[in-house]
Amino acid sequence: MKEIDVIIDTEEIAEFFFRELLKRGYVPTEEEMDELADITFEYLLEKCIIDEELDD
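Given the sequence above, the corresponding structure tokens read:
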């Protein structure tokens, strides 16, 4: 299986969720969006879909 580099940006995740929730009639706060983005990132880590790499 080929390995590829994928950059996951929690700010981009938050923006995506915000747009999708607005389409569905929800108006989340910025704090709620940040929490959802963090939870999504942690989920991807837990499922081993991504690996976290820290910048030096």
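The helical segments are 10-23, 30-46. Try to locate this feature in the token string yourself.
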